[in-house]
């Protein structure tokens, strides 16, 4: 299972989706890099119908 | 000339165009990383029951189609390593499992394309290579392994014999390079997949000794380690080099070998302070430059969080990592350990 992650943008002062996803089993931060094997596994999981959990809300 | 003295500035080799001494260097001839099985960053010598694709000792992963059929441990069983070595990968079967046609159990090292491009596989200039290693098993008979390309549609299965149980046996296998098929050149993808069979079904088994346009990892009828409860398979001194004969194992200094491993996996610790109270905000100066550039953007796993708030990764790159607070908090400290993985 995976979960999206928010990232605070210091310029816009808002939280936005980061360019990584969290693997919930071990908390791994997986970058959206096509050469990263964990990201490849995430894409395969999505291709099989997996839907990542929404990102946690962050109060600024 | 005194006995044993060689008076030459160039020593020819079995490979046309390659020589030693004044010619091409023999340094870093071994394309296998951690061939002496010294580096074990993940488990530090502890036994693990790996899941499919999990890395064990550095650069070595296992592919298993069934869970919990084997364990892997550096120096498992504490047997005396072969002369010249102090470490080995120890694999122990956890049950007597009869493989089905689609089962696979293999120990794998994927070699990066940047390090195999000179082999010229996939061209008429493909070079002959030699794979050598020391192996020890509680079983005897014919064992096997394979070389494959990144797409797993080119395979060369080799076989070898272990005639005496519980005795280190030196194995050398020479393989003519593949002149066809698609092989990754100088890229950070998989240039060459080297695997040792621990038990594979008929789908992945074939006759050894030739290149084939399919995904094979074992010789038909080869001994299955996972088929015998408690069976052991130990290996070290793994070397893959250009040429038609095995030369002496290339001993690299510890830091050299560790640095080679750290291109794919590294660990560290971070301790820093939150710059302001915004949630998920960047930490002031929370950048960890990576002393060894990684193969690609790594996956980060944080653990042992003992600060005021938890940390998380904010920016991941192959050259540096920037950390952040996972939640808001003014002037709070984050303290954690981390692993970065960019394995193939």
Topology:
The complex is a heterodimer of chains A (60) and B (344).
Chain A: E1 2-9, E2 14-23, E3 28-31, H1 37-47
Antiparallel strand pairs in A: 1-2, 2-3
Chain B: E1 10-12, E2 19-21, E3 61-64, E4 70-74, E5 89-93, E6 104-112, E7 129-137, E8 141-148, E9 155-162, E10 169-175, E11 190-200, E12 205-206, E13 211-212, E14 218-219, E15 232-242, H1 254-262, E16 265-273, E17 282-289, E18 299-303, E19 311-316, E20 320-325, E21 333-341
Offer a few descriptive terms.
heterodimer, A: alpha+beta, 3 strands, 18% helix, B: 344 residues, 6-stranded antiparallel β-sheet, globular
Tell me briefly what this model is.
The complex is a heterodimer of chains A (60) and B (344). Helix content of chain A is 18%, strand content 37%.
Task: Walk me through the structure.
The complex is a heterodimer of chains A (60) and B (344). Chain A is α+β, with helices and mostly antiparallel strands and 60 residues long. Helix content of chain A is 18%, strand content 37%. A three-stranded antiparallel β-sheet of chain A has the order 1-2-3, covered by helices on one side. In chain A, 28% of the residues are buried. Chain B is an all-beta fold and 344 residues long. Chain B has one helix and 21 strands. In chain B, the strands form six sheets. In chain B, strands 3-6-11-8-9-13 form a six-stranded antiparallel β-sheet, with no helix packed on it. In chain B, strands 4-5-15-7-10 form a five-stranded antiparallel β-sheet, with no helix packed on it. A three-stranded antiparallel β-sheet of chain B has the order 16-21-18, with no helix packed on it. In chain B, strand 8 and strand 9 form a beta hairpin. Chain B is globular, with a radius of gyration of 22 Å. The chains are: A alpha+beta (60), B mainly beta (344). The interface between A and B is medium-sized, with 23 and 27 residues.
């Amino acid at each position: 299972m995976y979960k999206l992650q928010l990232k605070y943008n210091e310029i816009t002062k808002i939280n936005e989706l980061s360019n990584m996803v969290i693997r919930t089993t071990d908390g791994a931060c997986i970058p959206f890099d096509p050469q990263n094997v964990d990201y490849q596994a995430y894409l395969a999981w999505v291709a099989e119908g997996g839907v990542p959990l929404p990102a946690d809300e962050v109060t600024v | 000339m005194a006995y044993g003295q060689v008076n030459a500035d160039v020593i020819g080799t079995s490979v046309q165009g390659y020589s030693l001494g004044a010619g091409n260097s023999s340094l870093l001839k071994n394309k296998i990383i951690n061939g002496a099985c010294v580096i074990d960053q993940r488990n530090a010598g502890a036994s693990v029951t790996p899941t499919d694709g999990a890395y064990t000792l550095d650069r070595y992963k296992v592919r298993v189609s069934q869970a919990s059929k084997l364990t892997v441990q550096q120096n498992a069983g504490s047997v005396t390593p072969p002369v010249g070595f102090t470490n080995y990968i120890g694999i122990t079967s956890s049950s007597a499992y009869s493989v089905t046609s689609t089962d696979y159990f293999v120990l794998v090292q994927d070699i990066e394309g940047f390090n195999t491009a000179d082999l010229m596989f996939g061209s008429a200039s493909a070079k002959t290579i030699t794979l050598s290693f020391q192996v020890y098993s509680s079983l005897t008979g014919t064992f096997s392994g394979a070389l494959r390309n990144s797409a797993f549609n080119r395979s060369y299965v080799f076989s070898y014999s272990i005639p005496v149980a519980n005795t280190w046996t030196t194995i050398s296998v020479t393989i003519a390079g593949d002149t066809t098929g698609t092989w990754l050149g100088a890229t950070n993808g998989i240039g060459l997949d080297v695997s040792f069979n621990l038990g594979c079904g008929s789908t992945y088994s074939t006759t050894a000794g030739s290149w084939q346009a399919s995904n094979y990892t074992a010789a038909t009828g080869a001994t299955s380690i996972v088929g015998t409860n408690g069976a052991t398979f130990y290996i070290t001194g793994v070397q893959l080099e250009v040429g038609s004969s095995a030369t002496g194992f290339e001993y690299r200094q510890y830091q050299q070998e560790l640095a080679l491993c750290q291109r794919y996996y590294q660990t560290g610790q971070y301790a820093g302070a939150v710059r302001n109270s915004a949630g998920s905000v960047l930490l002031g100066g929370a950048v960890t430059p990576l002393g060894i550039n990684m193969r690609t953007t790594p996956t980060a796993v944080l653990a042992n969080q003992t600060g005021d708030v938890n940390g998380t990764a904010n920016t991941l790159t192959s050259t540096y990592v920037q950390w952040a607070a996972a939640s808001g908090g003014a002037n709070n400290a984050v303290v954690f350990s981390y692993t970065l993985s960019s394995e193939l």
